[in-house]
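note to self: dont lose this again. the chain is below, predicted strucutre after it. 293 aa total, dont forget to put it in the shared folder this time
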Amino acid sequence: MSDKRLVFSLMLNLLLTIIEVVAGVFSGSLALIADGVHNFGDCGSFVIALIARKIGRLPSDTRRTFGYRRAEIIGALINLTILAITSLYLLCEAAVQLMSEHTVNGRTMVVTAGLALFVNTATAALLHAGSRGNMNVRAAYLHNLADSLSSLGVVLAGVAILWFGTAWIDAAMTILVSLYVLWQSVPDMRRAIHILMEGAPADIDTEELLAAMQGVNGVAEVHHLHLWELDEHERALEAHVVVKDPDLGRWPAIKLEIKSQLGSRFHVHHSTLELEGWDEEACQPCPPGERHC
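---
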């Protein structure tokens, strides 16, 4: 998928954000403002996706030997943090609004949210094809699909206000939208922090991986094991491998078998292994509680 679709989707959502926030201020609808903030978060996701695609094409250099792949993670964490703080603010405002008398222009809510529903659905359709082979585009696609449901909720709240005059539904819908944004943001924030802290992939059992490496014929022990995520797609590993076989000619085959196990079973395709000779007199069991000494 070309970058033009992402740029076009970004411009549509940015325009929609401005319309929703302005309409929310003039109509007194906090739900419209909340939905606009959510759309602004999607603008951030489009920017991140665009930057990631640009940076991903840059080669590594002497200062960034792993390349610039984590720029996307840093940008995502900043964007998600701002989005979460804004959602908490809207939750507080909605709570205050529930306890006070106010009027809401339901007609403006319905018209503006209807426009948002159309734009979000159109954007999701625009990104659908590219979402199949790119996780960043897929995230933007899913956000817009979810926004369509959020806008539909605001439309329903506006209809309820027009028919029944129940202005409290606006604040209730704001709470629902804000909680939904937090529900979407917090797990992604935790994942971004985990990657930046060089944590092990969540889908890999480190003990199982260690056992698989030590189960390779000729391997006596594995220590100084480090497993981390380079970004959301790539993971890396480094370890010291103690080899029993004194025949150095066998060592390349042992290393190849370990790498094959790492790639096929654990999807770790970037590994650095330092092979060491086995010395029965020098090698002692690990102290109790230290399984990776």
